[in-house]
Amino acid sequence: MSLGSSLGHSLRRCVAAAGIGAETLGSLDANPVPADWRHVTKIDPETAKLLPVAYPLYLANTDAVSVGGSTAVTADNTEETFRLLARAPVPAFHEPSEARHVTEETRELAAFLALPEVLNGETEALVGTLGEGLAYLHDEMVPALLREKLPAALYRAVGDRLVDFATSWLLEAAVFEAYVVQNPDSAAARRSGVDESDVLSPATARERAMVADRHLDSEIVYVEYSGTYGGDEAADVLRAVSESVDGARVWYGGGIDDREKTAEMLAVGADTVVVGDCFHDVADEEVEVCARAVEALGVAPSADEIRSWFDDAVDPVETAAARYLRTTPRVDDPEAAAERSLLVALALCFGALPAVVGESRPSVERTRSLLSAVDADAADRLDAALSAGDPEAADGDPLDDYCARVAAALSDADPPRLRHLSLSTLSVSR
Ligand SMILES: CC(C)=CCC/C(C)=C/CC/C(C)=C/CC/C(C)=C/COP(=O)(O)OP(=O)(O)O
Ligand SMILES: O=P(O)(O)OC[C@@H](O)CO
């Protein structure tokens, strides 16, 4: 058994034992990445890409969140994103594009690490960055962590051996995503040195997927059309790849923005679709809808005024919110869910605004009452989605805590911490 393969097997035992996946030792399927994930939402920590303020509601309809991106990502904006997602109702894992994006905090907040390895790019994208990453873990991050946690005498005595052990442990608790990057005109392609000539035919993609699955022991083979829908070409690749892999999950990402595209990619062999841009569009839409509402209604409208403005001004069918919700097979009525979620964004906005512009004292009660008035179940649904996340993520009541955070985002009280929330970019004259 090769070193890579034996590492892969012990990784699966370790991750399965840690309870990250649904698989158990001795079962035929030892892949820790759940086979029943159909829909993953990819959130880019880049500060220009925002999170909808109603994200707990949207993310209740996906299976997991992947945090990562290839442009303008830093350790700081990655930590900020994970802090917000600590209250998300589904696991958030970390897909770093650079080792230095992995910090003690991201490691603690992420469900697991998913490391990209590109099967059709430059050597750098397959093993180069990984090698640098491992050296960084071994030489810098792990020693710093152990020095901080251990008494100095103990560190002097056994530090070196512990560094070796902890580095191996960190790697074993990671999963590998073997990418086939098929859109040369994407940030992911530029990052991995993929050009037109590297795009794979279904037959070659099949061969590389077999290497990833059987030799590299990659947990995921990821057919990546980032930014564009792969259509028939992607379908051919997915058919070839999915028929050839044994243990790896097959993921598809790129341009998914409606139900048919999700269904098509799942039908031709993807276990999971990954939806990225379409989710960030919802955040931009929230800002635009809230800005229009403030212009029409002022800063302190009643719930009835909000509701009737919404009915006149917004067609839920045409919204980015509905587009995102249509991508996930779990939502029965995406248009109704979009309407409810946009009304929640408006309630969160108008609940906080009067205090933000100095017209009243801060009041979570105002938000709660607007939420209940625009939709009887809204406060309960938001509360349930927030409570499903890490119960230790905040003290006190999750909904109260979240309303206070939204107000802080609107008032610039703590912009670095909350600058990913859509409403932090809403400008209201005071
Ligand atoms: C060992 C540790 C701690 C880290 C290793 C870090 C590694 C291996 C990083 C690999 C970086 C790499 C080769 C990335 C390839 C590009 C890629 C496939 C990125 C994923 O795509 P998205 O981030 O979704 O791209 P967009 O920004 O276009 O959406
Ligand atoms: O942003 P989109 O095009 O949805 O792509 C999602 C994901 O595959 C990117 O890695």
Automatic annotation (TrEMBL):
InterPro entries: GGGP/HepGP_synthase_I, GGGP/HepGP_synthase_sf, GGGP_HepGP_synthase. It catalyses: sn-glycerol 1-phosphate + (2E,6E,10E)-geranylgeranyl diphosphate = sn-3-O-(geranylgeranyl)glycerol 1-phosphate + diphosphate. The keyword Lipid biosynthesis applies. This is phosphoglycerol geranylgeranyltransferase. Its EC number is 2.5.1.41. Keywords: Lipid biosynthesis, Lipid metabolism, Magnesium, Metal-binding, Phospholipid biosynthesis, Phospholipid metabolism, Transferase. GO terms for molecular function: heptaprenylglyceryl phosphate synthase activity; metal ion binding; phosphoglycerol geranylgeranyltransferase activity. It is an enzyme of class 2 (transferase). One of its GO terms (biological process) is glycerophospholipid biosynthetic process. The keyword Protease does not apply.
